[in-house]
Amino acid sequence: MIKYLLNIFIFLSIGQQALAQTTYEIGTQDSAKSNEISNNGIASNFVKQYALLKNFEVNGYYRFIGNYRHLSSSYAHLAANKNNLFIGDDSQIPQLMLNLKGYASDNAFFGTDLFMWTPMTGMGEIENVKGLNLGVSLYGNFSTDIGNFNVRAGGINWFALSPFTFQTSRGNNRYSLFERNPWDPNTKKVETRYADFYNSGAINQDQRWGNQAFHGLIVEGAQLPYNMSISGMYGRTQFDGGASPIPNTSGGGRLAKNFGPHNNFISLNTFNNDSYLDSLNTKKAGFNMATVEQQWQISNIKLYSEIGTGRRFTTDSTTNWGEAISIKVSTKLANKYYIELHTFRISPNVFNNTSVFMNSSIQQTTQSVSSQTQPVLIPVSSALLQMGQLSNNRQGIELNTQIDIGPVKTSFGYANSMEIQNLSNQITYSHAFNSLALSRFWRWDFPSNVGPYNNLSKIYRNVFETVYLTDLDPLTGKPLFKKYFNTIEINSKYKTSIGKKELYLFYLGSINSVQTQLNSFVEFTEKALLRAYFHQFETYLRLNSKIVWANYVSYERIVANYSTNTDVTSLRPKNQVGYSVASGFDIQLSKGVGLYFRQRYMNYYDKSFELDKYEGFESTLELKIFF
Prior knowledge:
Layout: H1 2-28, H2 31-37, H3 41-53, E1 56-73, E2 83-87, E3 96-103, E4 108-117, E5 129-131, E6 137-143, E7 148-159, H4 192-200, E8 212-224, E9 228-237, E10 248-259, E11 264-276, E12 284-298, E13 301-314, E14 322-333, E15 337-346, E16 357-358, E17 382-383, E18 390-391, E19 394-405, E20 408-419, E21 426-430, H5 435-439, E22 456-459, E23 462-468, E24 484-498, E25 501-515, E26 528-542, E27 547-560, E28 575-590, E29 593-606, E30 613-626
Parallel strand pairs: 16-18, 17-21
Antiparallel strand pairs: 1-2, 1-3, 1-30, 3-4, 4-5, 4-6, 6-7, 7-8, 8-9, 9-10, 10-11, 11-12, 12-13, 13-14, 14-15, 15-19, 19-20, 20-24, 21-23, 22-23, 24-25, 25-26, 26-27, 27-28, 28-29, 29-30
């Protein structure tokens, strides 16, 4: 025992001397001279190791989130769980994330991440999850005589080609700020989030905003001869089997020429998928998409377009090629009022689940993996969509404008669209004010056809509801008519002060209708198959340099007519009312540390479907630390 302790003492003594020697050398000598005078073997090794550590970076975040829900009235499956306390994020976002970056040279480096996550589902120690979130990626930046190149390989990288090939919808900057997202950052000043939205109509977003997740190889080249640039990618996406061992590959690219002083360009884009659906590799499915994209600016008029073609194929059939057209013209009237006209047409034969348009015409076939839960994909139906979100089997126009009068900044949107073919006997929509709270009624899984009437389906942080049409062709089951869609959106913002304390007031409204004939405006009568009205009002008062007081009120009304399914008891169609009142605080504890509290009261009921109702409170506390 004494000999064992003596050996430890000698080892620690040598280590202490080596550390002292190394510290002296680093503090008093330059690196070259330090290496020359270090004859001690231990000290020499330590110096070399320290030099490597200087090329290694670690950052990340810690996020604590707790949620308490009390329901005085609820759906049947929650009857025994009306009081629920949940610690952790049921959005499946890690509580602790470490981002690691190491440099192999000035031009090449790797990146990876480590996460820790405790879902607290009651499974015990097995649910203390640790692992990789985005995986390990290798990056390289290289300058050559013909241009600059960037290479990314492995892991999961967030990337975009063009809207119709590989990208997500970015909308029109009309949204509520009250409910925080897991990816929302802290800001240097606690009120910056609301000031930015008032001033520019946008807020800080992370790298996922507008991009799709991709696993594989991505190569980009810029500043090539003749002002050319290229992008190429080969690997896998999350919607076509993801990391399934069954073979599935996706690939595409972009060739662009840039010219002129206004970032004008023209590009050729393509994205394609080829997947097997079974382990025997006998069933196959995929799609092809190719487009031409361009942007021109002449004086104060900007013209943007993407025109292409696409198709979907399986082992048994292949659709004909269909057209995909998106054209935008924007300008400033009198050099003051911004206005944009957008016209689009996307054939029902075009399919691409990694693009800005959702699929409403082709029944999706996905890989079946027994050990995994396949998330619910975007519904195959006629959906009530926010402006900026497109769908195949639809054509129409959108008009967006921004008018600023003094301290009042108002964004207007008008949309008028129609189906190209009458294919779907369903209409789907989401609830604006309580979509996140409602999604928490089903934690972890993404079930379809749930709820008291089996017409609710959960997707990520949202729930959509399905209405079934009754006027159908008895042979095909398809509706006897095409559906026409009208939408009006308003986002108005006002800034004032109370006793030198900044106050922001935001209103977000949406009026929608779906009917069987073309209308120039929203239909407010029983002629509409479905009418949906959403109103949200928010206030943000800066109490001091560290605290913002947030308040929220919302109201929604959704009414269907007798050409949709009715309740078996009341014999009436959907007639829904919902409202919510909420309050909370944003507190900046220190640099990079934010505390966020939200308290919400919600009440929702359907006057025709008796079981479709819930009422209660929800409290959320979030602590987020970036380092």
